[in-house]
Structures are given as structure tokens and as C-alpha cells.
Design brief:
The complex is a heterodimer of chains A (116) and B (118). With 116 residues, chain A is mainly β. In chain A, strands 2, 4, 5, 6, 9, 10 and 11 form a seven-stranded mixed β-sheet that branches. A four-stranded antiparallel β-sheet of chain A has the order 1-3-8-7, with no helix packed on it. Chain A starts with a strand and ends with a strand. Chain B is an all-beta fold. In chain B, 0% of the residues lie in helices and 50% in strands. In chain B, strands 2, 5, 6, 10, 11 and 12 form a six-stranded mixed β-sheet that branches. In chain B, strands 3-9-8-7 form a four-stranded antiparallel β-sheet, with no helix packed on it. The chains are: A mainly beta (116), B mainly beta (118). At the A-B interface, strand 5, strand 9 and strand 10 of A face strand 5 and strand 11 of B.
Chain lengths: 116, 118
């Protein structure tokens, strides 16, 4: 079964709306989670590394004020796309790793965000 | 320079045949990991196989095997006995630094779209 839950799976909203996406590790603790963005027919691009209890680390070119990340607990990280515009429409996917095992990163099922 | 290169945008394979998906990588870190993920049209990322840079043997997981050639910096995925359900996008990814390291972020290639024909 899924070990990382991502919600919602699909969002359609008006331009200017802020959208929050949740990523939960279901049966393990994740001090670090990762947020990726994928445009159609393209690869996954890492946006930021979410660190529990501290600030996220953003990749070059990613606006931290646009994409707010909060990792308040060991099982939950949230990505908020603030004042979303059509160019923010994309597939957002999170991943998490169980720090107590050698298992690879587990990915959520992704969120398809469409801004009209 | 690209860290992960997948030169095949798309591949066709006949059902029940084997197929090799290419992946080359570039890193100066002596400790790294290589991954293959499958992404069907529904979007989820499915982990297939992992190879550590210090692993002596090529990784295998069921019908998946990884042809790891360290000197050539290649980590090709071999799928044996292809099935219709194997049709999907396949991504090669690399983690720089040791397993269990501080960030473990993955760098992905551009992907190969595999179509299995009946």
C-alpha cells in the first residue's frame, strides 16, 4: 500500500488563488521530504527540500515566497502555491525517505494543479 | 553538463521480448546511488531498482536488472519478457553522496517512453 499520501490529487482553481498541497508519510518518520514539479512530457525537477523543524532549502530559480513550504511534524510537509497563475499549472509530486531504513524515497501520487 | 542523460525519448518493444533503456550519469562524488522509476500515465512514481556505487554486483529485481558499468558511467535498465503493463515513462535518477546522507535529493533524467506492442 501507499506509504506516502499526497492530497489533493487534482486541483482546478482561479488565477490568484492560493493552493495548499499536503504530503504525509503514513507509517514512518520523515525528517526530510522533497517537492518536485513536472511539466507535461518533461522530467521531474526538484523544487525544494523540506526539513522538519527548520526552513526549506530551495533550488536555484525557485521563488521561496511563491512556493511556501512548511514541515511542522515528522510526518507532514505542505507546499502552498501562493497567488497561483496559469503558468504555475503543473504536476507537483512529493517524496519522503524513512531515515531509519535503507529504503529508497517513496513518492506520493502527485497533484495536478490547473490554474484557469 | 547534464548529470543524468537518457538519450532515448521513446522505445518500442514487442511483448515478451527484452528491452534496454539507456542511462548515463556524471558525478565526481565517489559515493552515489542510481535509481530507476516507472511513471504510468496516472502519474505516480513507482520505484523499480537501485544500484549503489560500491555494489559489486548488478542489481536485479524480478524482471528488472540494472547493467551497471561504472567505468563508462552507465546504468542501463533491462526489462525482460516485456508485458503490456510495462508501457510507461521510465526515469533514471541519481543520488549524490552516501545512502542515508543529509539530503538524499534525486536528480532525474528526461525519461524514456516505453511502448510495449502486442
Amino acid at each position: 500500500g501507499a506509504v506516502v499520501s499526497q492530497h489533493p490529487s487534482r486541483v482546478i482553481c482561479k488565477s490568484g488563488t492560493s493552493v495548499k498541497i499536503e504530503c504525509r508519510s503514513l507509517d514512518f518518520q520523515a525528517t526530510t521530504m522533497f517537492w518536485y514539479r513536472q511539466f507535461p512530457k518533461q522530467s521531474l525537477m526538484l523544487m525544494a527540500t523540506s526539513n522538519e523543524g527548520s526552513k526549506a532549502t530551495y533550488e536555484q530559480g525557485v521563488e521561496k515566497d511563491k512556493f511556501l513550504i512548511n514541515h511542522a511534524s515528522l510526518t507532514l510537509s505542505t507546499l502552498t502555491v501562493t497567488s497561483a497563475h496559469p503558468e504555475d499549472s503543473s504536476f507537483y509530486i512529493c517524496s519522503a525517505r524513512d531515515v531509519n531504513s535503507n529504503q529508497p524515497q517513496h513518492f506520493g501520487d502527485g497533484t495536478r494543479l490547473s490554474i484557469l | 553538463a547534464q548529470k543524468i542523460t537518457q538519450t532515448q525519448p521513446g522505445m518500442f518493444v514487442q511483448e515478451k521480448e527484452a528491452v534496454t533503456l539507456d542511462c548515463t550519469y556524471d558525478t565526481s562524488d565517489p559515493s552515489y546511488g542510481l535509481f530507476w522509476y516507472k511513471q504510468p500515465s496516472s502519474g505516480e512514481m513507482i520505484f523499480l531498482i537501485y544500484q549503489g556505487s560500491y555494489d559489486q554486483q548488478n542489481a536485479t529485481e524480478g524482471r528488472y536488472s540494472l547493467n551497471f558499468q561504472k567505468a563508462r558511467k552507465s546504468a542501463n535498465l533491462v526489462i525482460s519478457a516485456s508485458q503490456l503493463g510495462d508501457s510507461a515513462m521510465y526515469f533514471c535518477a541519481m543520488r549524490e553522496g552516501p545512502r542515508g546522507g543529509a539530503t538524499n535529493k534525486l536528480i532525474f533524467g528526461t525519461g524514456t517512453l516505453l511502448a510495449v506492442q502486442p
